[in-house]
Amino acid sequence: MKESILNVLLYLFEHYIYDHPELVQDPDTLQNNLIQAGFSPAEVSKAFDWLETLAQDRPQSATSALQGPMRLFAEAELDRFDVEARGFLMFLEQRGVISAEQRELVIDRAMALDQDEIALDDLKWVVLMVLFNQPGSEAAFAWMESQIFIDDPEPVH
User: Fold this and answer.
1) Structural domain containing residue 33
2) DSSP per residue over the chain, as a string?
3) pLDDT at 1
4) Does the pTM exceed 0.90?
5) What are the 10-residue block averages of pLDDT along the chain, 157 residues in total?
6) Does residue 75 lie in a domain region?
7) How far apart are CA 100 and CA 127, in angstroms?
8) Are 24 and 73 contained in the same domain?
């Protein structure tokens, strides 16, 4: 299995940050636990750097200073975000789930994953982790969480 920063982050989020935040107080023990779980020290270190940058890049306020009708993606972003992922970001912003600053933070953190392609499922997890880290985003986090864990609804006939 090819390890990635996202795999480490998902494991960390699901097993520690989300369910047992009190265990996150000791980063050295946490890193050792991740290595014992089978992740390489290099990937664990990259994941911790990713989280540290996320914590440092919080928007200053919940209201957006960035406004405008459209966000144009850079060529590198177009190469990595598939069409579904880009459309989902636009949907989240238009519905008010994320602000323009949060969108930029999501894009930045997704680009920092070092993956060739950022598919919709990967992007949803990045959005969830960003919202989890944003004070005042509890409702958006809950909605996003339901989007990740929701079963496919039965078709209406």
Assistant:
1) 1-56
2) ----HHHHHHHHIIIIITT-GGGGG-HHHHHHHHHHTT--HHHHHHHHHHHHHHHHT--S-SS-S---S--PPPHHHHHHB-HHHHHHHHHHHHTTSS-HHHHHHHHHHHHTT--S-B-HHHHHHHHHHHHHTSTT-HHHHHHHHHHHHPPPPPPP-
3) 37
4) no
5) 77 76 72 89 90 75 52 90 92 91 93 91 93 90 86 48
6) yes
7) 13
8) no
Query: What is the domain count for the chain?
Result: 2
Do 137 and 82 lie in one domain? The reply is yes
Distance CA 31, CA 145 (A): 25
Establish if 64 belongs to a structural domain.
no
Q: Are 120 and 145 within one domain?
A: yes
